[in-house]
């Protein structure tokens, strides 16, 4: 493989002294015990994410600091919620649950937009020892019911509008659901039969509460992740996970006390909970919450006028910003912005450079998944970026590449540039503890001390990891193993291509041939001439063995709600096969 260009960091790139600068030394020095000490000891001896995220700061005198700034949307004005106020709201919600007889281990589901009530419910449930599961509010009735039933949801907090549109007709199919609490979207009381008024109950509830004694191993959060087929899997996370969120906020996001931080993910996706709520609160910083959906103009406006300093977003958003053109970005200045990170999908080298050239800052890709609960591999401020790489394992994380030998046994690859399944050594605090009700599947994810991630990767001689693809998505063509990402990245280097999704299509001779689906940037029209040009471009970049044999144009590629291109859906549609679980599909499964 060609040596990749590297983005060398300069003091100007960093703007403030980063939280660490010597990667190897920090890895040697690191211990999870030291992280636990930094997070403080809960007076009652327990360990609860909500105490670490909220009460700890109030107790140390930082209660007046703004925890979340909820931006204005339509008639709802901007609202700042301080650490003290969020603590009070969480206490009240904890008391609401107790009044209802909801206790430790009971499941509380949230189906709302990104409004203050979501965060009060999240942390109030944790204080009560209950288990929280935030869902995307854009889910349709069926995915909501499936998840509530899988998770045995006893409580649902939603809005009157969402309830009427998505839950009411399905309620008798949710046998575990005892209480539905409605937030009135008009701001007033709600009066729908068999439901409770969230606002009224919160008003009556006392401001103070004792936290239910929980330990680091108590179940705290339940996040659903889509399988390739069948029903979604519920990944179980525990209170002890906070140690990972704090450490990774420090190393991968470089959070500093005065930062104004914006994580664009919805809490319906694990990123929006781990990094949109928990990690910034653990660091005692102020976060922006935008209740609105993606809009390039609005986003540039937020970065500029709110003075965002650390921005955590996703490749799909970056690609959409790129599609909107550089002029839109350059129409404003971002003097406070100092660190940009991205997660969720491979970040094409083009996008890393786009950040550098357009916003003046490279984009730091990092890697993790619902099961890992927190960031595992990252481009950090402490070392140079190799655009297209996911970076290196964070302090406290041991990663490797595992290969299957001919006799079927697994072996850790030692040589540089070895390709294989990305594996992580057990022991980081936010590792998922179970797939809900599916012990067999959980056990299958481990080989001895190693958790097998289901992703294929390459580790280079400098210890950087390069994403190849999901094991399920990798293409085998005429003896070559082809990762869709490298083909997609090559296509995206062409100015016409906004997004690309690549699949293997069964072929009697080659086994599979590569087929690409592309959407185009503004100002380009699909047509035979462009198709041939793209085929030629890919062949010259990748060689005939790896380049796509077929290219099809699509206005939009199918994506999950968290922004991932659904290659398996492109493949199923191409081959006329069943589409499997499409509950997280962005278009078509909405309202
Ligand atoms: P989820 O559990 O929905 O967050 O999806 C996790 C999966 O997204 C991972 O297993 C990867 O396949 C993919 N993913 C996440 N971050 C990255 C990244 N930085 N580069 C490549 N793939 C990623």
Automatic annotation (TrEMBL):
Residues passing through the membrane, by range: none
EC id: 6.2.1.1
Domain AMP-dependent synthetase/ligase residues, every copy: 57-436
Key words, A-Z: Acetylation, ATP-binding, Ligase, Nucleotide-binding
GO MF terms held by the record: acetate-CoA ligase activity
Annotated ranges, domain AMP-binding enzyme C-terminal: 486-564
Pfam family, one: AMP-binding_C
The keyword Acetylation is annotated on this UniProt entry: yes
PANTHER family assigned to the protein according to its UniProt record, in alphabetical order: ACETYL-COENZYME A SYNTHETASE (PTHR24095), ACETYL-COENZYME A SYNTHETASE 1 (PTHR24095:SF14)
NCBIfam families per record: PRK04319.1
Protein name: acetate--CoA ligase
């Amino acid at each position: 493989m060609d040596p990749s260009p590297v983005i060398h960091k300069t003091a100007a790139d960093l703007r403030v002294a980063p939280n660490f600068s010597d990667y190897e030394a920090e890895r040697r020095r690191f211990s999870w015990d030291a992280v636990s000490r930094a997070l403080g000891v809960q007076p009652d001896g327990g360990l609860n994410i909500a105490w670490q995220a909220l009460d700890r700061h109030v107790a140390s005198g930082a209660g007046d600091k703004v925890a979340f700034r909820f931006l204005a949307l339509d008639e709802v004005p901007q609202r700042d919620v301080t650490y003290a106020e969020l603590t009070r709201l969480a206490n009240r919600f904890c008391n609401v649950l107790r009044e209802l007889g909801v206790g430790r281990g009971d499941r509380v589901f949230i189906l709302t937009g990104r409004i203050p009530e979501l965060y009060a419910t999240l942390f109030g449930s944790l204080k009560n020892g209950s288990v929280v599961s935030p869902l995307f509010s854009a889910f349709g009735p069926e995915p909501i019911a499936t998840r509530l039933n899988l998770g045995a949801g006893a409580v649902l907090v939603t809005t009157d509008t969402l309830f009427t549109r998505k839950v009411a007709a399905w309620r008798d199919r949710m046998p575990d659901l005892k209480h539905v609490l409605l937030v009135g979207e008009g701001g007033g009381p709600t009066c729908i039969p068999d439901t409770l008024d969230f606002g009224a109950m919160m008003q009556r509830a006392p401001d103070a509460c004792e936290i239910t004694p929980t330990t680091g191993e108590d179940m705290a959060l339940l996040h659903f992740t889509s399988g390739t087929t069948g029903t979604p899997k519920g990944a179980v996370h525990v209170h002890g996970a906070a140690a990972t969120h704090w450490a990774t906020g420090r190393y991968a996001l470089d959070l500093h006390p005065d930062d104004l931080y914006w994580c664009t993910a919805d809490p319906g996706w694990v990123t929006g909970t781990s990094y949109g709520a928990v990690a910034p609160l653990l660091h005692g910083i102020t976060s922006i919450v935008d209740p609105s959906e993606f809009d390039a103009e609005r986003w540039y406006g937020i970065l500029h006028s709110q003075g965002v300093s650390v921005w955590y977003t996703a490749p799909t958003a970056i690609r959409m910003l790129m599609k909107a053109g550089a002029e839109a970005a350059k129409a404003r200045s971002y003097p406070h912005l100092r660190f940009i990170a991205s997660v969720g999908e491979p970040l094409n080298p083009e996008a890393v450079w786009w950040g550098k050239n357009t916003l003046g800052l490279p984009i730091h890709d990092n890697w993790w998944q619902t099961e890992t609960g927190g960031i595992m591999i990252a481009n950090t401020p402490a070392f140079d970026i190799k655009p297209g790489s996911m970076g290196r394992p964070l302090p406290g994380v041991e990663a490797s590449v595992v290969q299957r030998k001919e006799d079927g046994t697994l072996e850790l690859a030692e040589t540089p540039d070895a390709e294989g399944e990305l594996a992580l050594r057990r022991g980081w605090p936010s590792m998922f503890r179970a797939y809900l009700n599916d012990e067999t599947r959980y056990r299958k994810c481990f080989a001895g001390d190693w958790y097998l991630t289901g992703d294929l990767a390459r580790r280079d001689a400098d210890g950087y990891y390069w994403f190849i693809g999901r094991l399920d998505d990798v293409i085998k063509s005429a003896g070559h193993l082809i990762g869709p990402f490298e083909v997609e990245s090559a296509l995206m280097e062409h100015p016409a291509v906004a997004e690309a999704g690549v699949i293997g299509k069964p072929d009697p001779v080659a086994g599979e041939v590569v087929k690409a689906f592309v959407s185009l940037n503004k100002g380009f029209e699909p047509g035979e001439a462009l198709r041939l040009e793209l085929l030629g471009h890919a062949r010259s970049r990748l060689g005939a063995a790896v380049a796509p044999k077929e290219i099809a144009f699509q206005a939009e590629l199918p994506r999950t709600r968290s922004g991932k291109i659904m290659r398996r859906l492109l493949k199923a549609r191409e081959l006329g096969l069943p589409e499997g679980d499409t509950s997280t599909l962005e278009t078509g499964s909405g309202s």
